[in-house]
Amino acid sequence: MAYFDAASAAPLHPVARQALQASLDEGWADPARLYREGRRARMLLDAAREAAAEAVGCRPDELVFTSSGTQAVHSGIAGALAGRRRIGSHLIVSTVEHSSVLHAADVHEAGGGAVTQVAVDRAGAVGVRAYADALRPDTALACLQSANHEVGTEQPVAEVAAVCREAGVPLLVDAAQSLGWGRVEGDWSLLAASAHKWGGPAGVGVLVVRKGVRFAAQGPVDERESGRAAGFENIPAIVAAAASLRAVRAEAAVEAVRLRELTDRIRARVPALVPDVEVVGDPARRLPGIVTFSCLYVDGETLLHELDREGFSVSSGSSCTSSTLTPSHVLKAMGVLSEGNVRVSLPAGTPEEDVERFLEVLPGAVAGVREKLGAPVPSAVVREDVLVVDALGKRCPIPVIELAKVIGDVPVGATVRVLSDDEAARLDIPAWCEMRGQEYVGEEPQGRGSAYVVRRVS
Amino acid sequence: MAYFDAASAAPLHPVARQALQASLDEGWADPARLYREGRRARMLLDAAREAAAEAVGCRPDELVFTSSGTQAVHSGIAGALAGRRRIGSHLIVSTVEHSSVLHAADVHEAGGGAVTQVAVDRAGAVGVRAYADALRPDTALACLQSANHEVGTEQPVAEVAAVCREAGVPLLVDAAQSLGWGRVEGDWSLLAASAHKWGGPAGVGVLVVRKGVRFAAQGPVDERESGRAAGFENIPAIVAAAASLRAVRAEAAVEAVRLRELTDRIRARVPALVPDVEVVGDPARRLPGIVTFSCLYVDGETLLHELDREGFSVSSGSSCTSSTLTPSHVLKAMGVLSEGNVRVSLPAGTPEEDVERFLEVLPGAVAGVREKLGAPVPSAVVREDVLVVDALGKRCPIPVIELAKVIGDVPVGATVRVLSDDEAARLDIPAWCEMRGQEYVGEEPQGRGSAYVVRRVS
């Protein structure tokens, strides 16, 4: 069995397990109490805070532990926005932030705040210029991830932090995917992270607020964690989080080289092994362990099941695997193919053999799914002078499969209209055109769904 | 060493430890994922939810796990208030709720909501009539603890739930102190609890929202825990919480009898062993393991240190032990003595010998503290026809000590004025009068602090 979904949750690092078990005996009491058990708990908490601060590169009194990375993001954004309420209520985020950031932005907008979403390029990276252009006199806060959780692309955080600093706007960095690999460079103001992403236990997030950053914690607070994270501290888990962060950092330089070689191998060989694949994300400026690709004419959920049966646990940004039927907002923002999407995120220590076996298994798994889906009879009729494919009521990847089947019947220069009410078609038909060198003319709303118009150019 | 502060945090139950360790291997993955590790995590989470729901006496789909009891209270109150926004924004709480409830009420009030605090009697219990009287047509929510965390007094939850139900107002019960002992009876609507209070791990709270209760989760949410608790689930801790709840419940009936006998012993013998002690809280309607008393002329912090040196870990609601210099809001609301306050809360399994040794050690510890504080020269002068004691700048318990020293010099029927700028004096001087059978005349504001006027009647 091979677990290739470290970007969702990394397996518990052995150091985390040891530290957790050891501190269950010493760290269960209330660290606010003055008696022996309380003092011991306080000492463990203080030591964990110092270790985590050292790893982040901040002062211990700038760092609080929250109950999750999501809580750190939510509290950090709410507190930073409230702290600068007098300056304004404009918030900047990128279009490819983690959903926790986008949810916080939605709440801000619903409460009357303004939000600018900065677009990304096809590799998933924001432009520094675009962040600079988004800054306004009433900008209270800007947010940017250190690296993308779905495609691994690293963001130009230090450069964006510099333009924000110049404008006097604090930058909150969501470092959830990268903190285990190293410090976030640059002059950022706030930082959020999540222990279970680096091999620590669930239930621990980190929120750093640099001295001098205006911050007003929102909602009910108490005396815990400098008034920034209410509720009894989970000290055994905090100790385990800090110990494992230190441990993964000690191994990071060597492991980064090793995993990068493995993901490079996947990047290079998947397109050679599997036809009609698009590897997405920046090939160079990326996290060591993540590689993402999309397979045309494949239903992501079925492919994940096939791979699971073969012993591989991966995730997908395809709409087909979620309950919402909306494809990943990241792939959508990048404008890349979302159907048959697979994210491989290797945990530290992944053996080379597992990757080799994955590369052996993948082509058959994709071919199998394509075969299952492969022979729907397209209901194509010629109406006036264009071919119409009626894919209404059919879910991804069927609309694209039907388009591919009829394109050969369309005279060069003529158009085909694909009728579809599947949300993913909006993303996948243009992506197919780009991959196939055909022209995507546009979308025309229909009574039900839309007509996607494609011109055959070759 | 004896740990007598289970009401702050109970030591980890052996079953919790076993379940936590076992589920570290099985429960670390994302339960939202479809692959093997995710499915295993989901199964553990589902089983834990069923076990917890069975213990609470609710449906599994009414119960979500939060990151702490505080989070459960904060989210529960905010969600219930928002769900009934159209009915009104009036909130009812008792004066002796846990600070997490009162903090949520403060935030509600700061946001323009109305809050009624229902008073308690000298035993710390609310009256059902008082809750009924507080209900208004615009009441959105009422909150009541199942039992008080500082003095152990049980509240008439079922009766209050009935009057709320009659008025169509949901009742949120903070069951943090009692859930390990048994289900909360009555027709309540929402319930919050905290695992580390019953011997589960830190980092797990429980929020129950009965079907049919209008509820609108506030702040950014995600797809986790029915949209009521954002952030990656801490499944190993959740499993340990549910398993230990079941385990403590299995032992509850026998252990309740045993601990009640031990706390009865403390209630009966402390006043006989230590002069000038007031045992507070309801003698009968109370939790099995909690007993609280206050010692006149004693500084709570010093007494806690003495007891800690003797190997006893207890807590105190005296102002002297907190950083705020404000005495416990619970003792204040009950109108009982706060100085030299000691809360003994026995964890399950406390050996009888530990309680006996505590009763041996306590008289000497109190006497030692009194001796250290015993000889301040009261700066008493006769002004006009009354005695004035100038205790300005002196902290509790000095103002009461000085009052006690001069009362013998006051003719029966005459008054003494104690000048004090210590917040605790407002509570402790009337309490001393009640204990000593003297008449508390009232408080007169001064330039600095107040004059507390006492008439000698015996």
UniProtKB/TrEMBL annotation, chains A, B:
PANTHER family the record matches: CYSTEINE DESULFURASE, CYSTEINE DESULFURYLASE FAMILY MEMBER
SUPFAM superfamilies in the record: PLP-dependent transferases (SSF53383), SirA-like (SSF64307)
Protein family (similarity comment): Belongs to the class-V pyridoxal-phosphate-dependent aminotransferase family. NifS/IscS subfamily.
Reactions accelerated catalytically: (sulfur carrier)-H + L-cysteine = (sulfur carrier)-SH + L-alanine
CDD domains cross-referenced by the UniProt entry: SirA_YedF_YeeD (cd00291)
InterPro entries: Aminotrans_V_dom, Cysteine_dSase, PyrdxlP-dep_Trfase, PyrdxlP-dep_Trfase_major, PyrdxlP-dep_Trfase_small, TusA-like, TusA-like_sf
Segments forming domain UPF0033: 389-413
Keyword Nuclease: no
Protein name: Pyridoxalphosphate dependent protein
UniProt xrefs under Pfam families: Aminotran_5, TusA
Cofactor: pyridoxal 5'-phosphate
Keyword terms, alphabetized: Iron, Iron-sulfur, Metal-binding, Pyridoxal phosphate, Transferase
